[in-house]
Amino acid sequence: MSGKRKIIKWSLIVFAGLIASIVLFGVWFMSLLPPIPESVKDIKTTTPSELVYLTEGKIPYRGKILAVVTSTDQMGSSGKSTGYELTELSRAYYVFQANGFEVDVASPKGGNPPVVIDDGDMKDFDYAFLNDPVAQAKVSQSIAMKEVNPEDYEAVYFVGGKGAMFDFPDNEHIQSLVRDYYESGKVVGAVCHGPAALLNVMLSNGQPLLANRIVSGFTNEEELLLIADAAEIFPFLLQDKLTENGARFNEGFMYLNMVSKDGNLVTGQNPWSTWEVAESIIDQLGYAPKERLITAEENTIAILGVFQAEGYSMAKASIDQFCTIDTMSIDRELLAVHSIVAAMQFDLLKTVNLIRLLSYSNEYL
């Protein structure tokens, strides 16, 4: 056999071995994810009447909160679709409702705004929102910002979604409402890309609203990991623009909860901050948020936060804390996703330790 043929032969053997190893690893990795319990297989049919958080201990009417979503359905000229993030609206919507507030939905153009639904992130509250005729009517007939009466609401909440980067910053009606609310002491909240609504707001004294304000929002690191050419697609990167406009940007760990509160301004870093942003708005309005069963997703985000801040051993202890009480109190798929994110960042040690945490959590099953 010639030298060239030997090289080809061994190259094919190595390549085949690599492919086989990847396949075997993939099969093993998927085996770490427990089967979906029968009790949660019908989650897509959830209705608001099945959410104990809403049906028990009802709180009397306290007023109205305005939720604002994007009208933009394309990321610039990239051809990539976008819209508002469903989970960032649905979860806050029901927190506000459970705490006695009616929610209206507005958008820059009004009408039926584009929505982004990620099946992997959908839980019972999100499906309940899709099955809620009142909520769906409010969304499909969203109020145009120019037609919003600011006096009707106690607070405004800007929902994230990449479309917000295009139509929130320069909307004069958004700017006017935010300025009036901020200066009058009403609560202004935003999550993920929602803080884009704050970028060009000038106060009556001529100063930018953001000047020296502590703010969180979707970070450069989070944006660029999944969209490498984000700087070319978007008119700006949110973290950069918030900082450029004078904000003291408060950055948490990637894809984990981080909420900043600066007076009557409440902002969250990403979709996993939605629950806390909504409840912080209720708190800022002067009410103790209604007690809610913390979700498995939130518990897992807490474990991941411990892992990032204190290391593997303490995260393992956190798993013990949660799973000793309820073996299904954590979201193992979310642990798996974060191990994949670590692999995408070429952080081998972090990837291995997250997989170890996932494997350890399965000992409780």
Describe what you observe in this structure.
This protein has 365 residues and is α/β, with parallel strands linked by helices. It folds into two domains: 242 residues, Rossmann fold (3-Layer(aba) Sandwich); 72 residues, no CATH class. Helices cover 45% and strands 11% of the residues. The protein is built from 15 helices and eleven strands. A seven-stranded mixed β-sheet has the order 5-3-1-6-7-11-10. A two-stranded parallel ribbon has the order 2-4. Strand 10 and strand 11 form a beta hairpin. The longest helix is centred in the N-terminal third of the chain and has 29 residues. The chain is globular.
Can you lay out the helices and strands and say which pair or pack?
Layout: H1 3-31, H2 52-55, E1 63-68, E2 84-85, H3 86-98, E3 101-107, E4 115-116, H4 124-130, H5 133-140, E5 143-144, E6 155-158, H6 164-167, H7 172-184, E7 187-191, E8 214-215, H8 220-226, H9 230-233, H10 238-244, E9 248-249, E10 259-262, E11 265-268, H11 274-284, H12 296-310, H13 312-325, H14 332-344, H15 348-361
Parallel strand pairs: 1-3, 1-6, 2-4, 3-5, 6-7, 7-11, 8-9
Antiparallel strand pairs: 10-11
Tally of individual helices: 15
Secondary-structure element pattern, one letter each: HHEEHEEHHEEHHEEHHHEEEHHHHH
Question: What is the CATH superfamily of the largest domain?
Answer: Class I glutamine amidotransferase (GATase) domain
Question: Would you tell me which CATH topology of the largest domain applies?
Answer: Rossmann fold
For the biggest β-sheet, the strand order reads 5-3-1-6-7-11-10
Give the strand tally. 11
**Distance N terminus to C terminus?**
54 Å
Q: Any idea what the radius of gyration is?
A: 23 Å
Give the low-confidence spans.
none
How much helix, percentage-wise, in residues? Answer: 40-55%
Number of domains: 2
Which CATH top level class of the largest domain fits?
A: Alpha Beta
CATH A-level architecture of the largest domain: 3-Layer(aba) Sandwich
**Nearest-integer average pLDDT:** 92
Describe the main β-sheet briefly: 7 strands, mixed
In one word, what is the shape?
globular
Structural class given helices, strands, pairing? alpha/beta
- The fraction of residues assigned to DSSP E strands is 5-15%
